Amino acid sequence: MQSGHDPVRIRIVHLSSVHPADDVRIVWKECASLAQAGYQVAFVVPADRSAHHTGPGQAVSIVTVKRHPSRLGRISLSNAAVLVAGLRLHGHVYHFHDPELIPVGLILRLLGKRVIYDAHEDMSQNLSNRRWIPRPLRYPATLAARGAEWLAGRLLSAVVAATPVIARRFPDARVTLVQNLARLSEFPLTGHPFETRPFAAAYVGALGPSRCAVEMVEALAKVSGCPDPRLIMAGDMSPLSLADTLAGSAGWRYVDYRGRQDRAGVRAILGEARVGLALYYPVKAHIDCEPTKVFEYMAAGLPVITSDFPHFREIVERTGCGLCVPPCDTSRIASAIEWIFTHPAEAQEMGRRGREAAERHFSWASEEQRLLRLYQRVTADLPSNRRGRRPQRQTAGYTNRRGA
Known about the structure:
Blueprint: E1 11-15, H1 24-36, E2 40-46, E3 60-65, H2 71-88, E4 93-96, H3 102-110, E5 114-119, H4 123-127, H5 135-155, E6 158-161, H6 164-167, E7 175-177, E8 200-204, H7 213-220, E9 230-234, H8 242-247, E10 255-257, H9 263-272, E11 275-278, H10 284-287, H11 292-299, E12 304-307, H12 310-319, E13 322-325, H13 330-342, H14 344-360, H15 364-378, E14 399-402
Parallel strand pairs: 1-2, 1-4, 2-3, 3-14, 4-5, 5-6, 6-7, 8-9, 8-11, 9-10, 11-12, 12-13
Helix pairs in contact: 1-15, 3-5, 7-13, 11-14
Protein backbone atom coordinates (compact mmCIF):
# COMPACT_ATOMS: atom_id res chain seq x y z
CA MET A 1 0.00 0.00 0.00
CA GLN A 2 1.64 3.25 -1.12
CA SER A 3 1.03 6.23 1.14
CA GLY A 4 2.88 8.91 3.08
CA HIS A 5 1.88 7.53 6.48
CA ASP A 6 1.97 4.32 8.44
CA PRO A 7 -1.53 2.76 8.29
CA VAL A 8 -0.77 0.57 11.31
CA ARG A 9 -0.99 3.66 13.52
CA ILE A 10 -4.35 4.83 12.17
CA ARG A 11 -7.46 3.64 13.98
CA ILE A 12 -10.56 2.86 11.91
CA VAL A 13 -13.93 2.40 13.62
CA HIS A 14 -16.85 0.89 11.70
CA LEU A 15 -20.32 1.53 13.12
CA SER A 16 -23.70 -0.14 12.63
CA SER A 17 -26.97 -0.20 14.55
CA VAL A 18 -28.72 -2.67 12.21
CA HIS A 19 -26.33 -5.19 10.70
CA PRO A 20 -25.21 -8.42 12.39
CA ALA A 21 -21.85 -8.61 14.12
CA ASP A 22 -20.56 -10.95 11.39
CA ASP A 23 -21.94 -9.02 8.41
CA VAL A 24 -20.25 -10.20 5.24
CA ARG A 25 -19.71 -6.82 3.58
CA ILE A 26 -18.65 -4.99 6.72
CA VAL A 27 -16.60 -7.60 8.58
CA TRP A 28 -15.46 -10.22 6.09
CA LYS A 29 -14.68 -7.77 3.31
CA GLU A 30 -14.12 -4.15 4.32
CA CYS A 31 -12.82 -4.61 7.88
CA ALA A 32 -10.73 -7.61 6.87
CA SER A 33 -9.17 -5.77 3.93
CA LEU A 34 -8.33 -2.73 6.05
CA ALA A 35 -6.80 -4.94 8.76
CA GLN A 36 -4.73 -6.78 6.16
CA ALA A 37 -3.45 -3.40 4.96
CA GLY A 38 -2.23 -2.65 8.49
CA TYR A 39 -4.90 -0.36 9.90
CA GLN A 40 -6.17 -0.86 13.45
CA VAL A 41 -9.82 -1.77 12.89
CA ALA A 42 -12.84 -2.10 15.20
CA PHE A 43 -16.51 -2.70 14.51
CA VAL A 44 -19.11 -1.34 16.97
CA VAL A 45 -22.49 -3.06 16.69
CA PRO A 46 -25.49 -3.99 18.86
CA ALA A 47 -25.50 -7.72 19.59
CA ASP A 48 -26.62 -10.21 22.18
CA ARG A 49 -24.18 -10.46 25.05
CA SER A 50 -24.13 -14.26 24.84
CA ALA A 51 -23.50 -14.43 21.10
CA HIS A 52 -20.14 -15.66 19.81
CA HIS A 53 -18.82 -13.45 17.03
CA THR A 54 -16.13 -14.80 14.76
CA GLY A 55 -14.42 -13.66 11.61
CA PRO A 56 -11.66 -14.47 9.13
CA GLY A 57 -8.85 -13.94 11.62
CA GLN A 58 -7.53 -10.44 10.91
CA ALA A 59 -6.84 -7.99 13.75
CA VAL A 60 -10.37 -6.64 14.04
CA SER A 61 -12.06 -5.91 17.37
CA ILE A 62 -15.81 -6.54 17.60
CA VAL A 63 -17.20 -4.13 20.21
CA THR A 64 -20.80 -4.96 21.09
CA VAL A 65 -23.41 -2.73 22.72
CA LYS A 66 -26.86 -3.61 23.99
CA ARG A 67 -29.36 -4.60 21.32
CA HIS A 68 -32.83 -3.01 21.50
CA PRO A 69 -35.47 -5.04 19.65
CA SER A 70 -37.92 -2.20 18.93
CA ARG A 71 -37.34 0.25 16.08
CA LEU A 72 -37.71 3.22 18.42
CA GLY A 73 -35.19 1.74 20.84
CA ARG A 74 -32.79 0.98 18.02
CA ILE A 75 -33.01 4.46 16.51
CA SER A 76 -32.61 6.24 19.84
CA LEU A 77 -30.84 4.08 22.44
CA SER A 78 -28.79 1.85 20.14
CA ASN A 79 -27.60 4.75 18.02
CA ALA A 80 -26.51 6.65 21.13
CA ALA A 81 -24.73 3.57 22.51
CA VAL A 82 -22.94 3.02 19.20
CA LEU A 83 -21.78 6.65 19.18
CA VAL A 84 -20.49 6.53 22.77
CA ALA A 85 -18.71 3.22 22.26
CA GLY A 86 -17.20 4.49 19.02
CA LEU A 87 -15.90 7.68 20.65
CA ARG A 88 -14.26 5.64 23.40
CA LEU A 89 -12.14 3.96 20.74
CA HIS A 90 -10.65 7.33 19.70
CA GLY A 91 -10.79 6.52 16.02
CA HIS A 92 -9.15 8.64 13.37
CA VAL A 93 -11.76 7.55 10.79
CA TYR A 94 -15.37 6.48 11.43
CA HIS A 95 -17.12 4.44 8.75
CA PHE A 96 -20.86 3.88 9.33
CA HIS A 97 -23.23 1.58 7.48
CA ASP A 98 -26.82 2.60 8.22
CA PRO A 99 -28.75 5.65 7.00
CA GLU A 100 -30.26 6.07 10.46
CA LEU A 101 -26.71 6.75 11.70
CA ILE A 102 -26.35 9.84 9.48
CA PRO A 103 -27.02 12.12 12.51
CA VAL A 104 -24.28 10.23 14.37
CA GLY A 105 -21.97 10.73 11.40
CA LEU A 106 -22.67 14.47 11.37
CA ILE A 107 -21.93 14.68 15.11
CA LEU A 108 -18.62 12.90 14.56
CA ARG A 109 -17.83 15.30 11.73
CA LEU A 110 -18.52 18.27 13.98
CA LEU A 111 -16.07 16.74 16.45
CA GLY A 112 -13.39 16.86 13.77
CA LYS A 113 -13.38 13.19 12.80
CA ARG A 114 -12.98 11.79 9.28
CA VAL A 115 -16.35 10.17 8.52
CA ILE A 116 -17.39 7.80 5.71
CA TYR A 117 -20.99 6.80 4.96
CA ASP A 118 -21.40 3.36 3.38
CA ALA A 119 -24.66 3.33 1.39
CA HIS A 120 -25.63 -0.33 0.98
CA GLU A 121 -29.14 0.19 -0.42
CA ASP A 122 -31.42 2.74 -2.05
CA MET A 123 -32.90 4.12 1.16
CA SER A 124 -35.60 6.28 -0.42
CA GLN A 125 -36.87 3.35 -2.52
CA ASN A 126 -36.88 1.06 0.50
CA LEU A 127 -38.85 3.48 2.67
CA SER A 128 -41.54 3.86 0.04
CA ASN A 129 -42.21 0.09 0.33
CA ARG A 130 -41.96 -0.34 4.12
CA ARG A 131 -45.25 -1.69 5.45
CA TRP A 132 -44.48 -0.63 9.03
CA ILE A 133 -44.55 3.03 7.93
CA PRO A 134 -48.16 4.32 7.70
CA ARG A 135 -48.95 4.98 4.05
CA PRO A 136 -49.53 8.76 4.50
CA LEU A 137 -46.06 9.06 6.07
CA ARG A 138 -44.10 7.16 3.43
CA TYR A 139 -43.63 10.07 1.06
CA PRO A 140 -42.54 12.50 3.84
CA ALA A 141 -40.20 9.78 5.16
CA THR A 142 -38.74 9.38 1.68
CA LEU A 143 -38.17 13.13 1.37
CA ALA A 144 -36.52 13.22 4.79
CA ALA A 145 -34.26 10.31 3.80
CA ARG A 146 -33.23 12.05 0.60
CA GLY A 147 -32.48 15.21 2.56
CA ALA A 148 -30.35 13.31 5.07
CA GLU A 149 -28.37 11.66 2.29
CA TRP A 150 -27.97 15.02 0.53
CA LEU A 151 -26.32 16.38 3.68
CA ALA A 152 -24.20 13.25 4.08
CA GLY A 153 -22.95 13.53 0.50
CA ARG A 154 -21.77 17.09 1.06
CA LEU A 155 -20.69 17.33 4.69
CA LEU A 156 -19.03 13.99 5.38
CA SER A 157 -15.51 13.06 4.30
CA ALA A 158 -16.61 10.50 1.72
CA VAL A 159 -19.38 8.14 0.67
CA VAL A 160 -18.98 4.48 -0.32
CA ALA A 161 -21.72 3.13 -2.60
CA ALA A 162 -22.46 -0.57 -3.06
CA THR A 163 -23.89 -0.24 -6.61
CA PRO A 164 -23.57 2.19 -9.53
CA VAL A 165 -27.24 3.18 -9.11
CA ILE A 166 -26.65 4.18 -5.49
CA ALA A 167 -23.43 5.99 -6.43
CA ARG A 168 -25.32 8.26 -8.82
CA ARG A 169 -27.22 9.79 -5.87
CA PHE A 170 -24.06 11.40 -4.50
CA PRO A 171 -21.57 14.02 -5.80
CA ASP A 172 -18.96 12.42 -8.05
CA ALA A 173 -16.10 13.99 -6.10
CA ARG A 174 -17.28 12.45 -2.81
CA VAL A 175 -18.39 8.94 -3.78
CA THR A 176 -16.41 5.73 -4.30
CA LEU A 177 -18.03 2.64 -5.79
CA VAL A 178 -17.18 -0.49 -3.79
CA GLN A 179 -19.36 -3.34 -5.02
CA ASN A 180 -20.34 -6.31 -2.93
CA LEU A 181 -18.46 -8.94 -4.92
CA ALA A 182 -17.24 -12.31 -3.67
CA ARG A 183 -13.91 -13.11 -2.07
CA LEU A 184 -12.72 -15.93 -4.34
CA SER A 185 -10.54 -17.37 -1.58
CA GLU A 186 -13.71 -18.20 0.36
CA PHE A 187 -14.95 -20.49 -2.38
CA PRO A 188 -12.31 -22.98 -3.47
CA LEU A 189 -13.69 -25.32 -6.10
CA THR A 190 -13.74 -28.43 -3.92
CA GLY A 191 -17.38 -29.50 -4.35
CA HIS A 192 -18.34 -32.88 -5.74
CA PRO A 193 -18.94 -33.27 -9.50
CA PHE A 194 -22.47 -32.27 -10.42
CA GLU A 195 -23.58 -35.74 -11.46
CA THR A 196 -22.75 -37.09 -7.99
CA ARG A 197 -24.48 -34.32 -6.03
CA PRO A 198 -28.02 -34.65 -4.67
CA PHE A 199 -30.75 -32.93 -6.66
CA ALA A 200 -30.48 -29.83 -4.47
CA ALA A 201 -30.99 -26.14 -5.17
CA ALA A 202 -29.55 -23.61 -2.70
CA TYR A 203 -30.78 -20.27 -1.45
CA VAL A 204 -28.52 -18.42 0.99
CA GLY A 205 -29.48 -15.02 2.39
CA ALA A 206 -32.28 -13.11 4.08
CA LEU A 207 -35.64 -14.79 3.57
CA GLY A 208 -38.70 -12.65 2.99
CA PRO A 209 -41.83 -12.42 0.83
CA SER A 210 -40.24 -9.97 -1.61
CA ARG A 211 -37.31 -12.35 -2.06
CA CYS A 212 -39.66 -14.99 -3.45
CA ALA A 213 -39.40 -17.31 -0.44
CA VAL A 214 -42.94 -18.59 -1.02
CA GLU A 215 -42.47 -18.97 -4.78
CA MET A 216 -39.23 -20.94 -4.40
CA VAL A 217 -40.82 -23.39 -1.98
CA GLU A 218 -43.95 -23.78 -4.11
CA ALA A 219 -41.81 -24.38 -7.19
CA LEU A 220 -40.13 -27.41 -5.59
CA ALA A 221 -43.49 -29.19 -5.45
CA LYS A 222 -43.67 -28.86 -9.26
CA VAL A 223 -40.21 -30.24 -10.03
CA SER A 224 -40.41 -33.67 -11.67
CA GLY A 225 -38.10 -35.87 -13.68
CA CYS A 226 -35.62 -36.44 -10.86
CA PRO A 227 -35.88 -38.30 -7.56
CA ASP A 228 -36.13 -36.46 -4.24
CA PRO A 229 -35.56 -32.82 -5.32
CA ARG A 230 -34.41 -30.61 -2.44
CA LEU A 231 -34.15 -26.92 -1.64
CA ILE A 232 -31.51 -26.02 0.94
CA MET A 233 -32.45 -22.66 2.47
CA ALA A 234 -30.26 -20.71 4.88
CA GLY A 235 -30.89 -17.30 6.41
CA ASP A 236 -33.08 -15.39 8.82
CA MET A 237 -36.82 -15.23 8.09
CA SER A 238 -38.67 -11.93 8.25
CA PRO A 239 -41.43 -11.49 9.24
CA LEU A 240 -41.53 -14.37 11.72
CA SER A 241 -44.98 -15.33 10.37
CA LEU A 242 -43.25 -16.34 7.13
CA ALA A 243 -42.24 -19.62 8.78
CA ASP A 244 -45.90 -20.60 9.20
CA THR A 245 -46.69 -19.59 5.63
CA LEU A 246 -43.88 -21.70 4.21
CA ALA A 247 -44.71 -24.66 6.44
CA GLY A 248 -48.21 -24.70 4.93
CA SER A 249 -46.91 -24.91 1.38
CA ALA A 250 -46.98 -28.18 -0.56
CA GLY A 251 -43.30 -27.74 -1.31
CA TRP A 252 -42.15 -27.44 2.30
CA ARG A 253 -41.54 -31.20 2.58
CA TYR A 254 -38.75 -30.76 0.03
CA VAL A 255 -37.02 -27.99 2.02
CA ASP A 256 -33.94 -28.44 4.19
CA TYR A 257 -34.01 -25.23 6.24
CA ARG A 258 -30.74 -24.63 8.10
CA GLY A 259 -31.28 -21.19 9.60
CA ARG A 260 -28.57 -18.56 9.72
CA GLN A 261 -25.14 -19.91 8.70
CA ASP A 262 -21.60 -18.71 9.21
CA ARG A 263 -19.25 -18.47 6.25
CA ALA A 264 -18.12 -22.07 6.57
CA GLY A 265 -21.76 -23.18 6.58
CA VAL A 266 -22.50 -21.16 3.44
CA ARG A 267 -19.50 -22.65 1.70
CA ALA A 268 -20.58 -26.17 2.64
CA ILE A 269 -24.13 -25.63 1.35
CA LEU A 270 -22.90 -24.36 -2.01
CA GLY A 271 -20.63 -27.39 -2.27
CA GLU A 272 -23.67 -29.68 -1.93
CA ALA A 273 -26.00 -27.99 -4.41
CA ARG A 274 -26.37 -28.13 -8.18
CA VAL A 275 -27.78 -24.60 -8.60
CA GLY A 276 -28.08 -21.34 -6.68
CA LEU A 277 -31.35 -19.35 -6.57
CA ALA A 278 -31.50 -15.55 -6.39
CA LEU A 279 -35.10 -14.48 -7.01
CA TYR A 280 -36.70 -11.13 -6.19
CA TYR A 281 -40.05 -9.45 -6.75
CA PRO A 282 -40.00 -6.87 -9.58
CA VAL A 283 -39.89 -3.71 -7.44
CA LYS A 284 -37.41 -0.95 -8.24
CA ALA A 285 -35.23 -1.51 -5.18
CA HIS A 286 -34.63 -5.08 -6.40
CA ILE A 287 -34.46 -4.43 -10.14
CA ASP A 288 -31.46 -2.12 -9.62
CA CYS A 289 -29.69 -4.16 -6.93
CA GLU A 290 -26.62 -6.39 -7.26
CA PRO A 291 -27.21 -9.40 -4.99
CA THR A 292 -24.08 -10.69 -3.32
CA LYS A 293 -25.45 -14.22 -3.52
CA VAL A 294 -25.31 -14.17 -7.34
CA PHE A 295 -21.58 -13.45 -7.25
CA GLU A 296 -21.01 -16.02 -4.50
CA TYR A 297 -22.82 -18.70 -6.50
CA MET A 298 -20.62 -17.84 -9.47
CA ALA A 299 -17.48 -17.93 -7.33
CA ALA A 300 -18.52 -21.36 -6.03
CA GLY A 301 -18.92 -22.66 -9.58
CA LEU A 302 -22.70 -22.99 -9.36
CA PRO A 303 -25.09 -22.14 -12.19
CA VAL A 304 -27.51 -19.38 -11.22
CA ILE A 305 -31.28 -19.06 -11.58
CA THR A 306 -32.30 -15.46 -11.06
CA SER A 307 -35.05 -12.96 -11.81
CA ASP A 308 -35.47 -11.87 -15.41
CA PHE A 309 -34.49 -8.25 -14.78
CA PRO A 310 -32.39 -6.32 -17.34
CA HIS A 311 -29.31 -5.98 -15.13
CA PHE A 312 -29.44 -9.58 -13.94
CA ARG A 313 -30.03 -10.81 -17.50
CA GLU A 314 -27.01 -8.85 -18.74
CA ILE A 315 -24.72 -10.61 -16.25
CA VAL A 316 -26.18 -14.08 -16.77
CA GLU A 317 -26.40 -13.93 -20.56
CA ARG A 318 -23.03 -12.24 -21.00
CA THR A 319 -21.28 -14.90 -18.94
CA GLY A 320 -23.51 -17.87 -19.81
CA CYS A 321 -23.64 -18.80 -16.12
CA GLY A 322 -27.33 -19.64 -15.69
CA LEU A 323 -30.98 -18.97 -16.44
CA CYS A 324 -33.35 -16.03 -15.93
CA VAL A 325 -37.02 -16.61 -15.11
CA PRO A 326 -40.09 -14.52 -14.24
CA PRO A 327 -39.72 -14.42 -10.44
CA CYS A 328 -43.41 -14.87 -9.60
CA ASP A 329 -44.03 -17.75 -12.02
CA THR A 330 -43.59 -20.93 -9.98
CA SER A 331 -43.97 -23.16 -13.04
CA ARG A 332 -41.12 -21.39 -14.85
CA ILE A 333 -38.96 -21.53 -11.72
CA ALA A 334 -39.66 -25.27 -11.42
CA SER A 335 -38.84 -25.87 -15.10
CA ALA A 336 -35.51 -24.04 -14.76
CA ILE A 337 -34.57 -26.05 -11.65
CA GLU A 338 -35.57 -29.31 -13.35
CA TRP A 339 -33.50 -28.48 -16.44
CA ILE A 340 -30.42 -27.87 -14.30
CA PHE A 341 -31.00 -31.11 -12.38
CA THR A 342 -31.43 -33.22 -15.51
CA HIS A 343 -28.57 -31.70 -17.56
CA PRO A 344 -25.55 -32.09 -15.27
CA ALA A 345 -22.90 -31.62 -17.96
CA GLU A 346 -24.44 -28.39 -19.22
CA ALA A 347 -25.03 -27.19 -15.64
CA GLN A 348 -21.42 -27.84 -14.68
CA GLU A 349 -20.27 -25.91 -17.76
CA MET A 350 -22.49 -22.97 -16.69
CA GLY A 351 -20.85 -23.13 -13.29
CA ARG A 352 -17.39 -23.19 -14.83
CA ARG A 353 -18.18 -20.11 -16.92
CA GLY A 354 -19.55 -18.35 -13.84
CA ARG A 355 -16.38 -19.04 -11.88
CA GLU A 356 -14.25 -17.82 -14.77
CA ALA A 357 -16.28 -14.60 -14.97
CA ALA A 358 -15.93 -14.13 -11.21
CA GLU A 359 -12.17 -14.47 -11.49
CA ARG A 360 -11.97 -11.98 -14.36
CA HIS A 361 -14.64 -9.41 -13.56
CA PHE A 362 -16.56 -10.00 -10.33
CA SER A 363 -14.12 -10.53 -7.46
CA TRP A 364 -13.57 -8.55 -4.27
CA ALA A 365 -9.90 -7.99 -5.17
CA SER A 366 -10.68 -5.00 -7.41
CA GLU A 367 -13.14 -3.52 -4.91
CA GLU A 368 -10.58 -3.90 -2.12
CA GLN A 369 -8.15 -1.73 -4.05
CA ARG A 370 -10.80 0.98 -4.48
CA LEU A 371 -11.48 0.90 -0.75
CA LEU A 372 -7.79 1.16 0.14
CA ARG A 373 -7.26 4.05 -2.29
CA LEU A 374 -10.18 5.87 -0.66
CA TYR A 375 -8.61 5.41 2.77
CA GLN A 376 -5.29 6.69 1.46
CA ARG A 377 -7.04 9.89 0.38
CA VAL A 378 -9.10 10.30 3.55
CA THR A 379 -6.12 9.74 5.86
CA ALA A 380 -3.39 11.31 3.70
CA ASP A 381 -2.79 14.33 5.98
CA LEU A 382 -3.18 12.52 9.30
CA PRO A 383 -0.05 12.59 11.47
CA SER A 384 1.11 9.17 12.60
CA ASN A 385 -0.18 8.27 16.03
CA ARG A 386 3.21 7.78 17.67
CA ARG A 387 1.68 6.64 20.93
CA GLY A 388 -0.42 3.97 19.22
CA ARG A 389 0.54 0.33 19.46
CA ARG A 390 0.76 -2.08 16.63
CA PRO A 391 -2.23 -4.41 16.60
CA GLN A 392 -1.68 -8.00 17.63
CA ARG A 393 -2.38 -10.28 14.70
CA GLN A 394 -4.92 -12.96 15.47
CA THR A 395 -5.12 -16.38 13.93
CA ALA A 396 -8.51 -17.60 15.12
CA GLY A 397 -11.44 -15.27 15.33
CA TYR A 398 -11.92 -11.67 16.30
CA THR A 399 -11.51 -9.89 19.58
CA ASN A 400 -15.00 -9.60 21.05
CA ARG A 401 -15.74 -7.21 23.92
CA ARG A 402 -18.59 -5.16 25.24
CA GLY A 403 -18.83 -1.42 24.70
CA ALA A 404 -21.19 1.07 26.27
